[in-house]
Amino acid sequence: MRVTVALLAALLAGCSSVETLKASEEQAAAMGNATPVSSPDGAKPDGKVSEIAANNIAIAGKTLAIVQGSTLRIGSLDDIVADKAKSLNLNGECGEPTASGASFVLACGTDVFRIDAADPSLDNKLTGERPFSSAVVTSTGEVIAGGTDRGDLTIFANNEQHTVAVGQRTDQLVITPTDSVAAINREQTAIQGVLWKDRTHGAALRVGVGVGKVAPGDGDVVFATDTSGDQLAVYTLDPVIRLHQTAPVADSPWGLTWDKDNNVVWVASTGTNTITAYSINTGVPEEKGTLKTIANARAVAIDADGNLLVGSDSELQVLDADTLTNALS
């Protein structure tokens, strides 16, 4: 009888192990490749809304850069809204622009453009051997670029190119005010430090179950949305990448930006058509206020005047500084 009971217990334990393994495999298969859910109907956004495609926004001071198909538009917020911004024609598929000081950097195919915000043109170009999808520039002028078709990055420095193996594709690069760099792989839902000065990669961490977008904060802080897991994650990059805080947020977070004037990070969630501010002064991100957004918000940025901009494939929403202050009070 004891043998029978022992055998039955072993069989049940074996079944439990198989079921646990199967569940783990199913969870792993569901990780990565996150996309934001479509917004519910009936969005009633706060602030002002213009019919302008703006699913990517970079800001250098008071100058905006927005890629609209094969056109790059650069100008002040007023010029963008009034359709008076300068337009530059782009050849091939481009990534999202990023800002550094008074300039922008944009990856388009095998080219990376350095663009002066005050006098925009496509004359300043760096060319690699393979297509790039994301690029950032350091405070000392090095350009770091990566692509979704390979496991390495290219560093352009002093008229030379250096290759840094990172072992995974790059969907987005982010650089902090202290020149710390991280690479995002949405397929593996991972964030990895890039030790670009040493021409090598750093450690990598998993971001929940489906990383969306990342954005720099103050110092070497980086924020990330876990789109599939409905979370906000807070990391530091120097000297090694570390996860410090996480918090649940509204359904399907995607775009986010740091608001240094109010010392909060704004996180937009397409599942609820809302954008919520979180303080990170304590051990866990603390909700401070919420505003209503346009549907299917993809881009979030804040300009030098304190305007919070939210963009989608068809609309640009402007929430001015007073609106933010009232929401946070």
From TrEMBL:
InterPro entries noted in UniProt: SGL (IPR013658), WD40/YVTN_repeat-like_dom_sf (IPR015943)
Domain SMP-30/Gluconolactonase/LRE-like region: 156-311
Taxonomic superkingdom: Bacteria
Protein name: SMP-30/Gluconolactonase/LRE-like region domain-containing protein
Organism: Corynebacterium canis
